[in-house]
Please model this.
Amino acid sequence: MSPEFSIILLNIVIALLAYLSVYPTLAGNDFNKIAFYDIFTSAIALAIVGYHYWGSDYQFNLLFAEVNWFWYTLAIYTAVEIPLMWWYFKKNGVSIKR
Model:
């Protein structure tokens, strides 16, 4: 399994666990709580990948550029999370309160 694919798979698993289990249980439809817990879920992905690639010179292919593990993980996590976030917000009536 390529490093790129393993990071994609890791991010999918973390995001699915967050949106199907953690957020419904701990955050419900409160945008601020979802945002707070999302900091931790994205940090978990970065910590796991960072543990394997910190200090390495491995460059990940992000279609338009070669980037290090941090930016690759962050970009892929964002790409995986956005459709799940839209689905979750619509399903649970989450609105951004001002």
Observations:
- Strands lie at 60-61, 66-67.
- The radius of gyration is 15 Å.
- The chain has a mean pLDDT of 93.
- The chain has three helices and two strands.
